[in-house]
Amino acid sequence: MTDYKKMAAPGVQKLSPYIPGKPISELERELGISNIIKLASNENPLGPSPMAMQAIQGKMDELALYPDGNGFELKIALSKKHDLDMDCITLGNGSNDVLVLLAEAYLTPEHNAIYSQYSFAVYPIAIQAVGAEHQMIPALPWQSNTPLGCDLDLMKSAINEQTRMIFIANPNNPTGSFLSESQLYDFIKKVPEDVIVVLDEAYLEYSPEEVRVDGSQWLSEFKNLVITRTFSKAYGLAGFRVGYCLSHPDIANVLNRIRQPFNVNSLALTAAAAAINDFEFLEKSMAVNTHGMKILEAKCEELGLRYVPSKGNFLLVDFGKEAMPIYQQMLELGVITRPVGNYGLPNCLRITIGSESEMQRMIDVMDQVCG
Ligand SMILES: *Cc1c(COP(=O)(O)O)cnc(C)c1O
Question: How does the average pLDDT of the chain come out, rounded?
Answer without folding.
Answer: 96
